[in-house]
User: Fold this.
Amino acid sequence: MRCGIVVFPGSNCDHDVYHVLKHVLGQEAMFLWHDATDLKDCELIVLPGGFAYGDYLRAGAMAARSRIMSAVARHAERGGLVLGICNGFQVLLEAGLLPGAMRPNRGLRFLCQDVYLRLERHDLPFTHAYRDVRVARMPIAHAEGCYVASDEELDRLEAGGQVVLRYGDAGGGRGDDDPAVNPNGSARAIAGIVNRQGNVLGMMPHPERCAEAVLGNEDGLPLFRGLTEEHGRTAR
Amino acid sequence: MSRRVASPAEPAVDQEVAAEHGLSADEYERLCDLLGRTPTWTELGITSALWSEHCSYKSSKVHLARFPTSGPYVLQGPGENAGVVDIGHGWVAAFKMESHNHPSFIEPYQGAATGVGGILRDVFAMGARPIACLDSLRFGRLEAPRMRHLVDGVVRGIGDYGNCVGVPTVGGETGFHPSYDRNILVNVFALGLARRERLAHARAAGAGNPLLYVGSPTGRDGIHGATMASEAFAADSEAKRPTVQVGDPFTEKLLLEACLEALRTGAVVALQDMGAAGLTSTAFEMAARGGTGVYLNLSRVPLREPGLTPYEIMLSESQERMLLVVERQRQKDVEGIFRRWGLEVTDVGKVTDDGRAEVRFARRKVADMPVQPLTQGAPVLRRPVRVPKDLEERQRPPEVPQPDDPTAALAALLDTPEMGSKAWIWRQYDHTVRTNTVAGPGGDAAVLLLKGTPAGLALTSDVNPVYCWLDPHRGGAQAVAEAVRNLACVGAEPMALSDCLNFGSPEDPQIAWQFRECVEGMAAACRALEVPVISGNVSFYNQTDDGGPGGPRAIHPTPTVAMVGLIPDLASLPSSSFTRAGDRIVLLGTDAGEFGGSAYLRLLYEVEQGRPPAVDLGREARLAELLRFLAFEGLISTAHDLSEGGLAVALAEACFGRGLGAEVSLELAPLNLFSETQGRALVAAPAAAVEQVLEEAEAYGVPALEVGAVGGERLRIRASGGAVDAAVEDLRRRWETALPRWMEETG
Assistant:
């Protein structure tokens, strides 16, 4: 599959995503520069983690207005796959491709640690390769990952099945108010959401950082495998 | 004959003015001789920076010459922006450690942040992409004034900078001791990777080649930072805030990418960071290394605000700036790359072949100085040394009380910020970005994957300042030996080390003695354990004179060692924690009941006395070889070195990783569970492999004893006449909350 990884000035997980797609999964991966207007026929667009434009303003705010994002929006509108990880998720929110916003973590500190994720849906291109796996362990690394939205919006997300990943405990239980379970304090412990059409996913955890056995955790690999090798199965 | 150098708008220079710049009468005379005339104001500024302790190493040079600097892995020893080792598979690793102590005490967030920025630039100036940082931090007592603010600021500063640039902080160490109440230490290490043929240098060559200034514009921040770092603090250190620079990690990230891309064109002849002493040291050092000269036109230097004088431009330590020498014919190609990354690039001068540095500003010549005599002619001082008056008192054998209750003693030790988990700190550092982190912070050594190969790199930083204060020679040797042991625990062979030597004022003969002894101890260990020193930094004047009785108070001698090792194959990497119930525990090395400078005496009884544990370098070498063999052969599942807190603490730490208990019994007095005799480690192996582990230990000449097994939820250590018996969970909770309890406390 042709996979395009957008490089904003300040992206710093671009190489990591490239490594997984290209070297672990053997896909055709390429970098797309932030001021490009052409997505070079890529079927999957990844907005990687990092600090686009330094994020001195509000995480993702400037990147959301960069030239390539119009092309990404058109790609999404046509049903093309878009995956935003960490800063990429923040960019998707700021660009309005996903609803809600990010606030600084509860505790107001950057947090780099493993979290457990409840997989709430298995019928999306992003999650179908997890099959009967209900809980995945992945690292987070962010300062602004506290997902917020209005109650009505949150209800709409829940009702529409748009909450795909939720912070939980090792056994898959809820613990929204427990900082050990939901470390950044996200509303309803939301870690990842998808748009209504099911082709744009934003998530704070880093699946690309746990996709090789040598790193001691491969829980992120099915996400990329599901998107690439078994592509063709669309949402709903 | 002297060249005319006019500077009508600037103050005249005489010996008094020179003294205010920190130049001694001898140094001033020497400068006048070199120039054949009175220096200009700008020239005086340049000289005071180049000859500052920070840049010239004038007090340390004679001692540093004792370090071995070559070895089978070494490609580049001291003298470049960073040292370089050949790690095989076509890859080289460039690394260096540096201090940012003085600025971090004055302004912790920016001080620490810019420390990270500077060391990253040193590494990518070698053409190497930074892939890991370590931080060795020393703070005072958390109850000391400003201390929690300093801890918080330093940790946020390191985190925000490294996290944004995308370089993982994979390890380090943090200590707390009253000697750092008024002078904290922030030592930052970075390592980068490059293909062997892509290694870059900082030697200005090719007369006529342009000098390109890239990165942030120059402002008034950090002027005389290098000089400030060459003085002790007085009561007014707050007033020095303007000497601290401000960091911009986003620009750093752009510089990093643009410099690496520019280097790939082959058109870059040389590049160097503008670090301490700014444009001055960069231009002079690059020309000195290349045996060339430089012409600089300061009117072209991009400025953040109007009105900077040539003096200020030459000495500004504004961050995120690099100077490049590029091939004249390909100047446009290189400039295009920087512009594409949104960076300013300006032609500010050229390489010359007359061996002089000529600096112009507004059509006036403001400096014209010979390069080599000024850089290599920096004074070399042989400071007088004297054994500290109270050394005998310090080393008097301490009384060592038996623990009333060994379990309570262990719990109390683990419950201190000093011995407790540092996860509160390293959770704020991105330690997994770049997806090479096989073992991150918290173990004996960090382990990084070398992608595309079966091999890995291991990194550790170590020093015990209390040992160094009680016996600097032993302390210096111990720092090197412990680093070797930590690397051996993950099966790594040491390739080289970088150091950061933090001391008080070298003008105090007792401190000069500490320095010499520490260096000699380190050098002896480096030779015996075959670890060359390939880069590093000296930080003197870590002391404060607040006018109190007894004169200035200096920090404990702190020669931080950052060591890099190679693991041939990651397939059989042991963990620093117990991983499997049923594994048998084997203790390597024997105890000699040594408590001088021990955590037990210091943290439980507030006694800091006696000679620190002896360092038997032969025994250390044999132990390290054995550990590497056991790891490589996949015979052990766990390896953890015994250090502060002795066997009891090592066992507890090994239990914490997975919450697995252990049952151990030994013929030792309970007190000896806390002895800090060196050259020891504990390993765990499946029952079927224990015989072989014991046989190999015998073959390597390392005493080994099977002492128990992994399993259950309690840590039980039966000694002769007493025992530790506690739930692992209870111990772990204390250990985990010891530091956050202090830091998260509000009000």
User: Anything to note?
Assistant: Chain B has 25 helices and 29 strands. The two ends of chain B are 69 Å apart (CA to CA). The longest helix of chain B spans residues 509-529. The mean pLDDT of chain B is 95.
